[in-house]
Amino acid sequence: MTETTSSSAGRVRTRFAPSPTGFIHLGNIRSALYPWAFARATGGDFILRIEDTDVQRSSQAAVDVILDGLQWLGMVPDEGPFYQMQRMDRYRAALADLQAAGHVYPCYMGVEELDALRARQLADKEKPRYDGTWRPEDGKSLPPVPAGVQPVLRFRNPQGGVVAWDDKVKGRVEIRNDELDDLVIARPDGTPTYNFCVVVDDIDMRITHVIRGDDHVNNTPRQINIFRALGKEPPVYAHLPTVLDEHGEKMSKRNGAKPVTHYRDEGYLPDALLNYLARLGWSHGDDEIFSREQLLCWFDLDHLGRSAAQFDEAKLRWVNAQHLKAMADDALAALLAPQLQQQGVSAQALTDGRLPRICALFKDRCDTTLALANWAHVFYGEVAPAQAERAQHVTEDIAPALDALADALTACAWDRQSIGAAFKQVLAAQDLKMPRLAMPARVLTVGTAHTPSVDAVLELVGREKVVARLRNR
């Protein structure tokens, strides 16, 4: 029996090893979040490895999204990125060592022959697998080596017994070695294959815990056997359940998953995204909302869920709204400033000190920084009231009251209390209720009838703009 042993001593070292064959989405980020959080929670190291051996499908643009996404989320690796394509000499040296030790052998079975073998096995209702034709054994005669054929290299998988490990998510997993055929670990051109490269990388990078999606479970017994053939103990494994999209399908770009940078551009907060993703497969009691610091204090591998979690964008927006409300106004203002500049507000205009107060006034109404920036823009740019709201609220019969309000606001001190007193003065003189005057005042000054307290809003707009917009209707 071969079995992993939990690494209880030494520094924790985890890794995130994406393939840059498409943009990184939230399902991928969840797979990065747990090893990052575990490394941070234990004072360990988080390593980034780019598995770019699929040269035709890999792209620098995909690598850039990975790096940008991790940077934005504050999940900066301690080491890396390391690129597999830059490590080919190391893989070939390790292959030569395995071959010299008798763990690897050349196989000359071509694709057509292998396809025919699998077709016969399927017809006989057998599991399709390589049959060991070219596996050297004592007393066995191998077929003649065909002329002009470059062989693949296959790993001589152990026969008999089981390969087993105690998975931090799935519990005890045991696979019979006889269920595993001899894996191709180098192509005819000598290029090593995925399962071999991963093992060499994990050895060289001293990875202690492999926390990855459960789509890799079938690779694990093969990788454990390669670890042992190289004379090394495998790491601790935790195979995470799949993240499903809102339709119950596996989250993927083919099913409409968005790049992680989309959420940055849509105004989500990094800490909110980490909070939401952490709960997609891990829990700390009934806590729904927690800070980055709390996550890194609480995180462990003992409370990982075993069931697939389903992404819910409405829930993500709610989590983001809670973080938005809890965020300091000055910090929010610093996030909003670049967004407002992209909307055409000058940097100079944003130095007047109003932005933190605008954030304080509107953040409870917003679920993204983009929504908050749209509110803030009203205070720095021109206003174009919606025609329907103008028609409903800015009617001819309210015109005298609006003129009177403009006069009162021209003469009063410019603070909330004085602005509120000016409204009360006009309401009493015109015999009106507050909504009858406040609604058109809001429409004219900020473009909509629905805002927080009208005195607070008008104070932040500024006397000059308020009076001009009330008069020029």
Question: Which terms would index this structure?
Answer:
473 residues, aa-tRNA-synth_I_codon-bd_sub2, 3-stranded parallel β-sheet, ATP-binding, Glutamate--tRNA ligase, disordered N terminus, 3-stranded mixed β-sheet, Glu/Gln-tRNA-synth_Ib_cat-dom, 13 strands, protein biosynthesis, Arc Repressor Mutant, subunit A
Question: What do you see in this structure?
Answer:
It is a single chain. The chain is α/β, with parallel strands linked by helices and 473 residues long. Among the domains are: 327-377; 387-471, Arc Repressor Mutant, subunit A. The chain is 44% helix and 11% strand. The protein has 19 helices and 13 strands. The protein has helices at 26-41, 60-73, 88-100, 111-123, 194-204, 220-229, 260-265, 270-278, 292-298, 313-326, 329-342, 355-362, 369-377, 387-393, 399-411, 416-430, 434-446, 454-461, 463-471; strands at residues 2-3, 13-16, 45-50, 79-83, 104-107, 152-155, 162-167, 171-176, 184-186, 209-213, 236-240, 243-244, 309-310. The strands form 5 sheets. A 3-stranded mixed sheet has the order 1-7-8, with helices on one face. The protein has a 3-stranded parallel sheet with strand order 2-3-4. Helix 6 (220-229) links the parallel strand 10 and strand 11. Helix 11 crosses helix 13 (369-377). The longest helix has 16 residues, at 26-41. The chain is elongated and about 110 Å long. The protein starts with a strand and ends with a helix. The model is unreliable at 1-8 (pLDDT under 50). It catalyses: tRNA(Glu) + L-glutamate + ATP = L-glutamyl-tRNA(Glu) + AMP + diphosphate. A motif ('KMSKS' region) lies at residues 250-254. One of its GO terms (molecular function) is glutamate-tRNA ligase activity. Belongs to the class-I aminoacyl-tRNA synthetase family. Glutamate--tRNA ligase type 1 subfamily. This is Glutamate--tRNA ligase.
